[in-house]
Amino acid sequence: MRKYIIGLLTIILCSLAISCADELVDESVSSVFRPTVTGSILYLETPEDLLNATTINTYTQTVNFDAFEVDFFSGRVLSGTITYELINTTSKELDVLIEFLDEDGNFLGNESFNLEENETEIREAIYGPGGESIEIIKNLSQIRLTFTNNSGNVSTSSNPDPKVILKSKGEFKIQLIK
Predict the structure, then answer these.
(1) What is the pLDDT of residues 28-75, one digit of tens each?
(2) Domain that holds residue 51
(3) How many helices (H) and strands (E) does the chain have?
(4) pTM value?
């Protein structure tokens, strides 16, 4: 009877060890063939005196962004997160609109922010399962930025070197082997 129990325990422990080893191999293979890549996307800095120097309250600029169009990336990206950090040390209330466009200028998606004076906002946008369509990232070719100054061009912050800073970075999981 004792040999039977020891034999049964041995079989159970060996089964568990093999099962755990299979899971470890599956996880390590997954992490090797589906790595996460990280990089900066946008960095923009605008001093308050420039905001005060303009007579228009809305400024729009479209920038070419072909980094995601490379087939190695666009054909293999599975999911991702873009983290935005907007820092406003000015005396201005600002609306910021970030629009994603394809190569023909067609709208794919957007992120919008309303910043009070002396406010920082950090936000993550998820693409792929559980978030926005990953097709936005796969087809992104242009980024249109629109800044609206809701406070006029007269006020000045008492902060040293007041400015608006927009930073963004992306973290994406890609499939190395199809």
Answers:
(1) 555 557 888 899 999 999 899 888 887 788 888 999 988 888 888 888
(2) 35-174
(3) 4, 8
(4) 0.77
